[in-house]
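User: Hi! Is it possible to get a structure for several chains at once, not just one? Here's what I have:
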Amino acid sequence: MRPLRHLSLLLTLLSYLAFGQAVASLSGGVQLELRSYRADSAIGAPAVPERLGLNAYVPLSYRLGAFSVSLRYEAYLQPLQGYDRRYAGSGIAFRSLEYQDERFQLTVGGFYEQFGSGMVLRTYEERLLGIDNGLEGVRLRYNGPGIRLTGFVARQRRFFEWTGLVRGADVELTPSAWGIGTPLSWQLGASVVSKYQPDTDPLYRLPENVLAYALRGSWQWESWRLTAEWAYKYNDPSALNGYSYNPGTGLYVTLAGELAPVSFLLQAKRIDNMAFYSDRTASGTTSVLNYLPPLSRQQTYRLATLYAYATQPGGEIGIAAEAIVSLPEESLLGGEGGGTLTLSYSRIHGLDTVHTGELRYRSRFPGIGRQLYLEEFVAEHTVSWTPRLRSTVHLTRQIYNRDVSEGVRGYGLIWTWIAIADVAYTFAPRQTVRAELQHLWTRQDHGRWLFALLEYSLAPRLAVTVWDEYNYGNPDRSARFHYPSAAVTLLLQRFKLVLGYGRQRAGIVCVGGVCRYMPAANGLSLSVTATL
Amino acid sequence: MLRSAALVVAALPLWGQLPAVTLQTLDGRSVRADTLHNGGKPMVVNFWATWCKPCLVELATLHKLYPQWQAETGVKILAISIDDARTSAKVAPLVRARKWQFDVYLDPNSELRRAMNVTDIPHSFVLDGSGRIVWQHQAYSPGDEERLYAVLKELTRPDTLQPTRSDTSQPSQAK
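Assistant: Yes, the chains can be modeled jointly so their relative placement is included. Here is the combined structure:
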């Protein structure tokens, strides 16, 4: 009792004497994902011996003036199906102490970092995918007028341990902040990342230190913005690239602008041997150091995610274009409330490479290979017809190379059409009914799919959703399954509770172009999130 | 024991506020979140992304109401996009096409999102005139904006106006 009272006095003194009128704040949260598993041999849901899976995340941080302390407790008892079994257990997954003033920021312990677009470094946490490649070590940042500097030395999280050794530095200059080149607003940046891993291979002489660097720039004039980044990685033989001694390169260029009423975006990207892991034997989403998102559209409608493309870090080249047309209010296509028409196109190919010897290949620039990885055309019309009625109509044409994207054999290209209608009607104050109807046509793979969803919401507390996914066109008549589900969402300011029950098809879940396989499941699910 | 623990907590001036995390403006400048303020008037901080349908519906609704709300309560809406490197280039064209007048910032590696314990989006916070988080709401269903409006009206009732923070913090300028 006494030590606690002393602690309270000490903290009071700290807050009022040492920091004067310093700002103090406590923040935290809880996320629980609980799921029961019932064997369902028809859809391939296995019997899970523990019958229950639980992932829990509890972050907490306290800030007092320029100092802050953060912790995150995580528990996987047992990990949900689809998550790496090596997460099993519990512990403190993140701990950090930070000092920050107007100019300097010093972090000791855990941190997440991204340099530029992430081609040489991006560490982040994505719970839905079971990704946490956060760093733990020491980081120093300096923010001055028109200049930002970052440097760190750290190890990387791998489940409940920290491994490897990673060093990095980044500089970003904003010359327009010093009045240079105005009215153009522009930035230049450079980053370097190096990882160390001892060479214990009996056969090959492997580089123990691998360096990667990137140069970037962005230029903005009125609504026009051009950004470009070039990345280079010295030879980094790894399990994932077949112990190739080739260097890696990456180029990413984006141009955005407006020619009223059309806003548009053009992107080009070339990736060659850019898989970058702190551990050369790793694969998948553990020990990843960088982020290589694809140029395909980030789809969110259920059937449009059935064939979700994942970046091929070994090599790919692609372009993407998107135009958003503003539809005025009180018009034929814009309804009473206005709307948008979005058209997007992307095409991704493999690289044209020539095998030149054991563990080496030659790749010309730009070297567009003949093999198509993905072609996608999307048209989406969203409109508020009246203040109570809105709709989205969506059409996707996709050619998807399943063999390349999923690392399988014998499926080849899958040609699909997807049509979606999403209509919401607010029939009484705060009460809305929303319906989605989706259809996917293909002659390959599992054939045609139908998806229907109905949702009732009573703002601001409640939503009830029922949906069914039906593979009615499966060439194998015995595999024409329904995947019905229902969920109730309850909201109370800081709390959100979602209770669901149903069948979930096996499939790839993707966030930001990083994908994870989720096995089929049948059972009850409970999701609770709360913020302090 | 419990009493002492309560004492520890009670001794600390605790309230949520915007953390000291760096965001980007749409033209690439850096801004510290804790320097953003609205001169003693309330702010709404809304987390969204270009690929999040309910977020777009919510922001389209707020866009229609914004001029009236600004006139009545002086509120400022900060729309924090958590689009990462894959989609962050789409934010500016989308904002222009939809003619949004919000203060839009990018949080491409989810630093602010993590610091504010935002799990799913949309997620909205209301800050009073002194920068304290006084209300929050997850998800969006049509009609949620009525509750948000009621909170803003309550905050700006003449007898409940909070002391301003404008004298102690810098305006939202690039570092």
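The radius of gyration of chain B is 17 Å. Confidence is low (pLDDT under 50) at residues 7-13, 164-175 of chain B.

User: Great, thank you!
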